[in-house]
Design brief:
The structure is a single chain. The protein has 660 residues and is an alpha/beta fold. The chain is 64% helix and 7% strand. It has 28 helices and ten strands. Strands 3-2-1-4-5-6 form a six-stranded parallel β-sheet, sandwiched between helices. Strands 7-10-8-9 form a four-stranded antiparallel β-sheet, sandwiched between helices. It is globular and about 75 Å long.
Length: 660
């Protein structure tokens, strides 16, 4: 047996490791590396692996687990908060891009079913590339970042109708297609009701029993069983495996085991999804690319220009300023991984022929290769076209912050109101120190403002925003962002306004401690160093060392800039590990509107402590009371500030508003 399955997998893994490692050094996405791996070893490359039914079946499970994690991350509250951008901007983008591309394909002679598949495939953008690149550039919470994520969220949802639609297009034409579509959507609705109904009845008690066994292996097996069983059930109805996986993810998203499920399933998803992209790369035919290179370049340019113009126009209509609208269009101009999935599904169903599928895949791949460069340069491009855009945005934010904080004096300015910034604020309040905080997360700012905290939306790297927030009159500044480049920019502007003001900077580790000190930081607090000190001090105390000696030792280490703790073995080019799901407690605000169950009840009567939730503050008529007593009677319009895990907060909110 010349080509065994094991041999094929070994070849794929070996080449993928080398190619991914090489392309990561030039900062290209792993998706591109997998595609290049498939092109290199596939039938159109070196021919080491043939495009067989076995490899396609294996790759299909990558899409199954991708859709499962998508369902797992599906958030109805998030959809409702962003509903205008998601459903109007996202819906119109998908609809118009699909219709526009389909019409163009039809004019060039493609049958209607083929045109629809191509339209749906090109309507999608790359969630992986956009989210990662915007996060690296700290643009996720800017206006164009929020609009881009809203569109991507709708695109993710739009995949589900396409998964039902494409198999139905195989019924021929005219009335047969219409009947097939109707029947497919009825079966999809039946699967949706049946799977979610079964999930509500059986999944929570099932996983409760499994979790009680305290076996990680059993938990993982159960997750795989539920995922594949749901996928099999939709496939048995003549629908796609991926649809069932998405519904299974939605089921588990409603349980308290959601985060553990995500952690357990992620390795399977990443590996199988990588294999999926490899098999997509095997479909790419470089001979077709070479033969029609001019048409390919023209198609890529047309696709990206069309999507940029359409998204920018729609964003502008929905009220975005012209700079943010154009930046949103540039960010979403590329094709995406779901486009691969839809083209592959169309090829498997026999709707799209291989040469056309190969050409379409090549268009998407090239657009994805260009995309990181385009996203990286989006600010520069827009600044060239609209030079006054940044000034308009600065003036708007400066006016908003200055309007509220113009009288702030002798306060502490906290730049970044995440967990660290909020904890600092909680220590300042009891001692009578006023504070003003800036943050770029609009949801966090909204909730903090509801709780009565003086927190405002603003970019701390913008000198105008710092000035409007009162940096010239501040008693101290705390920079809680752990990104060192961001902290250095903020430090530079703070020191220009107030060279004498003390500045505390939080970092993840001690790598850039000296650089931050030279930039003007009064103190740099590396989290890893401080956690080491805490662990060591507790250990020495347990071993009987006097507390006075422990405190002197800690002070000595700090005074020498952690030099003792910095003498460790460090790996070359070590990257920070992913944050775990531990310590997920957070603050959350709940407003008691008319009809809420909690009205006219005391905090003690609600027994929120039994749900592991603590009421940390109560805001009534603009006045904030910290740590309200258990006999406090709640009234309509009260805002409760709760503390707990996301799951416990969700159930407590339902208890406060709707009842048990």
């Amino acid at each position: 047996m010349e080509h065994t399955t094991l041999r094929s997998i070994l070849i794929l893994l070996a080449v993928a490791v080398l190619v991914v490692a090489a392309l990561r050094r030039v900062k290209l996405p792993a998706v591109i590396a997998y595609l290049f791996t498939g092109l290199l070893v596939g039938p159109h490359g070196l021919g080491w692996i043939q495009d067989t039914a076995d490899t396609r079946d294996l790759a299909e499970f990558g899409v199954v687990f991708l859709l499962f994690t998508l369902g797992l991350e599906f958030s109805l509250p998030k959809l409702l908060v962003m509903r205008r951008a998601v459903f109007l901007l996202g819906g119109m983008q998908v609809l118009l891009t699909t219709l526009g591309t389909a019409a163009m394909a039809w004019l060039f002679g493609a049958p209607v079913p083929v045109a629809i598949v191509l339209g749906g495939a090109f309507a999608m953008s790359s969630t992986a590339i956009v989210a990662k690149q915007l996060a690296e550039q700290s643009e996720l919470n800017l206006q164009h970042g929020r609009l881009s994520i809203a569109v991507l969220l709708f695109q993710d949802l739009a995949v589900i109708p396409f998964l039902i639609l494409i198999p139905a297009l195989t019924h021929g034409s005219g009335t047969a297609i219409a009947d097939g579509l109707l029947w497919s959507f009825l079966k999809g609705a039946l699967a949706f009701i049946a799977i979610l109904g079964a999930g509500r009845l059986f999944l929570r008690p099932l996983f409760h029993q499994i979790a009680s066994a305290r076996s990680a292996e059993l938990f993982t097996i159960a997750v795989l069983l539920v995922t594949l069983a749901a996928a099999w059930s939709t496939a048995a109805l003549g629908l796609s495996l991926a649809l069932g996986a998405f519904l299974a993810g939605m089921m588990l998203a409603e349980t308290e085991y959601r985060h553990q499920v995500d952690a357990d399933i992620r390795p399977f998803r990443d590996i199988l999804l990588g294999l999926f992209f490899v098999t997509v790369g095997m479909l790419l035919n470089p001979h077709i690319v070479a033969r029609h290179w001019w048409l390919l370049i023209l198609s890529v340019a047309a696709l990206m220009l069309f999507k940029t113009a359409l998204v920018a126009l729609l964003s502008r209509v929905l009220g975005a300023d012209r700079g943010a609208a154009l930046r949103t269009g540039l960010v979403l101009a590329q094709g995406g991984e779901f486009g691969f999935a839809l083209l592959t599904l169309g090829l498997t169903a026999g709707i799209v022929r291989a040469p056309l599928a190969e050409f379409g895949l090549a268009v998407i791949v090239l657009s994805m290769i260009v995309s990181p460069l385009l996203i990286r340069a989006n600010h520069t491009i827009v600044a060239r076209i609209f030079p006054d855009t940044d000034a308009d945005e600065r003036d708007r934010l400066q006016h908003d912050i200055g309007q509220h904080q113009i009288h702030a004096e002798d306060h502490v300015l906290i730049v970044g109101y995440g967990r660290v910034g909020q904890n600092v604020a909680r220590f300042l309040e009891p001692e009578g120190f006023a504070f003003v905080a800036l943050d770029l997360d609009p949801v966090r700012v909204k909730r903090a403002r509801e709780a009565g905290d003086p927190v405002y939306y603003g970019d701390g790297t913008n000198p105008a925003i710092l000035k409007a927030a009162g940096v010239e009159r501040a008693r101290a500044v705390v920079i809680s962002y752990f990104q060192v480049p961001t902290a250095l920019k903020i430090l530079e502007h703070v020191k220009k306004f107030r060279p004498d003001v003390p500045v505390l900077v939080r970092t993840r580790d001690d790598v850039d401690l000296d650089k931050l000190m030279q930039a003007g930081a009064t103190e740099v607090i590396p989290e890893t160093m401080e956690s080491s000190l805490m662990v060591a001090s507790h250990l020495l105390h347990l071993l009987g060392i006097p507390m006075s000696k422990i405190l002197r030792k800690i002070q000595d280490v700090r005074s020498h800039r952690y030099s003792l703790l910095r003498s460790v073995f460090r790996g070359q080019d070590a990257l920070p590990m992913e944050t775990s799901h531990a310590f997920r407690e957070q603050l959350y605000t709940v407003t008691l509107n008319a009809g809420s169950r909690a009205i006219n009840k005391t905090i003690g009567e609600l027994n929120l402590k039994a749900a592991q939730v603590v009421v940390t503050a109560l805001r009534r008529e603009g006045v904030v009371g910290r740590q309200p007593s258990a006999d406090t009677l709640l009234k309509e319009g009260d805002v409760l500030v709760l503390w707990g895990t996301p799951e416990d907060l969700e159930s407590s909110e339902e208890k406060l508003l709707k009842g048990a």
